[in-house]
TrEMBL record, chain A:
Residues 1-21 form the signal peptide. This is Sugar ABC transporter substrate-binding protein. InterPro entries: Bact_solute-bd_prot1 (IPR050490), SBP (IPR006059). PROSITE patterns: PROKAR_LIPOPROTEIN. It comes from the Bacteria. The keyword Glycoprotein does not apply. Keywords: Cell membrane, Lipoprotein, Membrane, Palmitate, Signal.
TrEMBL record, chain B:
Keywords: Cell membrane, Membrane, Transmembrane, Transmembrane helix, Transport. Belongs to the binding-protein-dependent transport system permease family. This is Sugar ABC transporter permease. It comes from the Bacteria. It is found in: Cell membrane.
Amino acid sequence: MKKGLLLLFCLVFALSMSGCSNDNQGASGTEKNGEVQLKMWAHQGQPKEVDFYKKRIEEFNKEYKGKIHVKLDIIPSGAGHAYEDKINAAATSNGLPDVLDMDGPFVGNYAATGILAPIDDYVEKKDKQDFAKSIIQQGTYDGKLFALGAMESSVVVFYNKKLLKEAGIQAPESLDKAWTWDQFMDASKKLTKNNVHGLTMHMDLGVGEWLTYMGSVFVWSNGGLLLNEDNTKADGYVNGPKSVEAMNYVKDLFKSKVVSVSNGPTDFEEGKAAMMLGGVWLIPGFEEYKNLEWGMTYLPYSKKKMSPSGSWAFGVSSQSKQPKEAAEVVKWMSNKDSVVEISKITGMPPARESAFKELPEYDKLPKKVIKDQVLNTAKARPATPAYPVLTAKFAEAFQAAALGQDVKKELDKAAKDTDRELERFKK
Amino acid sequence: MEPVTQKTNESRPLPTVSPKQKKRKNLFASYGFVSPAMILLFVFLILPAILALYYSFTNYYLLTPEKMKFVGVENYKRLAEDDIFLKSLGNTALFVIIVVPVQTLVALALALLVNQKVRGIKFFRMAFFAPVVTSMVIVSILWTFIYNPDNGLANSILNIVGLGPFQFLTDKDQAMYSIIFMSIWQGAGYQMMIFLAGLQEIPDHLYEAASIDGASAWQKLIHITIPGIRNILVFIAIVTMIAATKLFIQPFVMTQGGPLDSTKTLVYMVYETGFKFRDVGYSSAIAILFFVIVLVISILQRKFIKESTE
């Protein structure tokens, strides 16, 4: 009797353990009453953004009633890598949803490893042309389209109007008058006083994606590249003479003490820094600082005018059994209505040119700066499967420059590690 | 009547169970009792360890398990040439070498302090223990603010004494020491509690006898207290060492291994390589080597302690 009980207990225990993997969390694409059931993941961004995702999917379900039904799960993204770790884990255990969103520069890695399915067949050419070039760039890998986003992003130079006036500096008000690197350096120096730095570059965000996102612009603007044109080689590019020169400019900014490596997260808002290289997503937060009179101007340039780009984008997982219906969801989430609405909610620039017409605030300063950059100077980070290594190593090199280290040595390391990683994906 | 019946009951041989069968039955029951723990250990500890050993000889990329290929000792060869690995090893060693003795001594000192029979001493015990029950992630975030070179608490306090300002986490030569200091502050309360339990086990009459013999406070410490908590001291040294080699959360939250890899530890490198870079093969090789290192240190420590206790 006791023996039997024990055996039963062991059996139940063993079964429950093996049962973990058979949970019905995985993909998906099942049919119920003729209605295709899809699963979708979205990362937990700002609360308003999450509300938008939920609302848009509800509307989708109403519109496609009887045909497609989407169940949306919001996945916490934690300090940055939690959402990605979840995708990685799901990919290896056959647990991916039909539709998922991902940060732009990771599309290449997910496409190369077969996590994403191409969506060219479902997207009309004309529709594709409406997207900002940089959004198509970030969603394309190996000539095929894998992801479409609703939001664009950009980095601009925010400035404190009062402090600039005191120093007698006029910030450029049109793209063709944008500051050169030297002018920018001069302005920063003039604005640096006892307790006020001329500039903050948000080094408080740590050695992460921000440094690559914001930092690669220096390389591009100086005529350099992170990888060669077809994204197959790093040596001679990320550590090429133009890139080294660009990083040395960054090093000089820090060396001349116009910008601090240990800035606080809201130095600009509190008036402790006169200018800031910051993402446009910071704008809604400025409202809390009543005393702050802020303006925006274009990123400074060396040889070419460049600006960073990229944001979260939607794609179809390769594990979906209903890719056509899943692509409908991707298109819905990035159609003009979605793009306009999310832009209004988050303050991020829209991913479509046509959407700018619905958003008149982008026609005049200060937001005109963002529009000009998105449509004229934006460049996506390289869509490469080696991106996780490239971005980490480049960010480390950027930090090394900020700390006054030998730039060439650090960039050489980045090139070596990225090239080894690229080897892995060569057929 | 009663005792008689009891006696007959006892003397009656159990008819169906032979000693051999009984032994087997006991064996089955004991296996039954340990099986839940064994299954858990096997699934979550032994199996992953075996898999890690296997993966370390492959080029397993996290997202493409189907393309996994056997590559021999390739990963280990790469380890031998990897500067960052050597640096991580050095950083981990530095942390262990400083933290184990210092934290043990600080904990002992705290325990001696809070072992006084003074009113309100419970408050101090609680205060010293509070960091231990706070999540390491939260403590790390708080200390990131404290260590801020421009407007952090640490520089403000040091400024009063006329020191600083220090760069702390943003300086490659100070970052590791900043983490070490904060880790000791966070962890010492735990060892203090264990020491305290040990101190209270030492009988008072030994101290009384020593006082009568005219022993000084220092002599009492060396000849009564330390020998009295000897076993606890050994236990704490081993536990602290094992915990210290696993340093991860502090660099993960506070510095991301930087600046310039100065706070990158072995476990951080395993995480970074395996999850961020998705290179499970190489990451496993680091983990295996890490395991071997900890194993060797543990064996040496055991041997050393055995010899000294004999």
